Amino acid sequence: MSVNTVTNNTISDALKHFDSLPDSASVRLPVVQGLYACSPASVWRGVAAGRIPKPRKLSPRTTCWQVGELRAALAAKAV
Questions:
Q1: Helix count (H) and strand count (E) of the chain?
Q2: Which of 11, 31, 38, 61 has the least C-beta neighbours within 10 A?
């Protein structure tokens, strides 16, 4: 099994269950990429521009976004 296959399956599973996650849950960059259908660089540009909520640092090497903040930003974008 290739690395891409594992990564793609993981992303698909996280996105598939996004609606069932509580608002307090945290997700990583690949899920945000899938929600906004963009590259990692575009996610960070969206954060800098205020279109995507700012992430939180869980540790020096772990960054995540809160599901409730992402839902609110996506709902505002849809209006």
A1: 4, 3
A2: 61
C-alpha span between 42 and 6 (Å, rounded): 23
Q: Which residue has the higher pLDDT, 79 or 28?
A: 28
Angle at 35 (CA atoms; ends 56, 21), nearest 5 degrees:
65
63 in Cβ contact with 26 (< 8 Å): no
Number of structural domains (the chain) is 1
Predicted confidence (pLDDT) per residue in 64-75, tens digit: 999 999 999 999
Report which DSSP code applies to 58. Answer: E
- pTM for the complete prediction? 0.82
Range of the structural domain that residue 11 is part of: 3-78
